[in-house]
TrEMBL record:
Family from the record: Belongs to the fructosamine kinase family.
The protein, known as: Fructosamine-3-kinase
Gene3D superfamilies linked to this entry: 1.20.1270.240, Phosphorylase Kinase, domain 1, Transferase(Phosphotransferase) domain 1
Alphabetic keyword roster: Kinase, Transferase
Pfam families: Fructosamin_kin
Length: 258
């Protein structure tokens, strides 16, 4: 079973930024409201300014069947949509976070402008200031951002309801199915969630990707776009984890501009 009644896991931080745990709770509620068949998320039992009380999960080994189910369910979560690119979940504070890093949540009409101005450039510039993204890397990222803002990389897909921080540690296989935790939920492009799974790895990843692509009716060549969507998590990690990620971000940017 996923958890026994009354079993909880408490995240507690007396120094949490105002609205930090409320933002996570709002994101979980929004993802949970995606509808029948969508990806399951951990249940929120209580939230205060300095703590979040969640359903306790009991992880098991990932299976190929569960991975396929996750891919199809994630496509349904994304298809539940959002009002705009960058829009936060209802009831969420205007400030967003990815991990402990602040992240903008301003509704934007086009994905390219949103992704460039609120996800890519702020973290690239922060990494450059820290010395974890070289000048050549910043220039490469800025060239990609110019194309994004110009709309060259928009594909007409509507805003997806994203988890927003979908690395393997936030994907928990249980006896009752896979449960997602710790989102940075917002309106974005569905490939962004897949790109983060691809970047950091997941058991049976190929099954997840194939099932998602079939359920979401992705166009041929969608895998070639993953480096573009990996720019944001790579730059986030460049800020927090060092220059190795900055070098990876530079390579991803160069692949993105062709």
């Amino acid at each position: 079973m996923t958890s026994a009644p009354g079993e909880v896991f408490t995240k507690h931080d007396p120094d949490a930024a105002p609205g930090f745990f409320a933002a996570e709770a709002a994101g979980l509620a929004w993802l949970a409201a995606a509808g029948p068949g969508a990806a399951a998320v951990v249940e929120v039992r209580a939230v205060t300014a300095d703590r979040l009380v969640l359903q306790r999960l009991h992880p098991i080994r990932m299976t190929r069947t569960a991975a396929r189910e996750l891919g199809a369910a994630l496509a349904l979560t994304h298809a539940a949509g959002a009002d705009a690119f960058g829009t936060p979940p209802p009831g969420r504070p205007p400030q967003g976070w990815i991990g402990r890093q602040p992240m903008s949540m301003v509704p934007t009409p086009t994905w390219g402008r949103f992704y460039a101005e609120q996800r890519v450039l702020p973290f690239a510039r922060a990494a450059a200031r820290r010395g974890t993204l070289r000048a050549s890397g910043l220039r490469a990222v800025e060239r990609v951002a110019d194309r994004l803002v110009a709309g060259e990389l928009d594909d007409g897909r509507p805003p997806a309801r994203l988890h927003g921080d979908l690395w393997s540690g936030n994907v928990v296989p249980t006896a009752d199915g896979i449960v997602l935790i710790d989102p940075a939920a917002h309106g974005g492009h569905g490939l962004t969630d897949l790109a983060m799974l691809d970047l950091f790895g997941l058991p049976e990843l190929a099954a997840v990707m194939d099932a998602y692509a079939a359920a979401a009716d992705l166009d041929a060549g969608w895998r070639d776009l993953l480096p573009l969507h990996q720019l944001h998590p790579l730059l986030v990690h460049a800020v927090s984890h060092g220059a190795g990620y900055g070098d990876e971000a530079e390579r991803a940017a160069l692949r993105s501009v062709g």
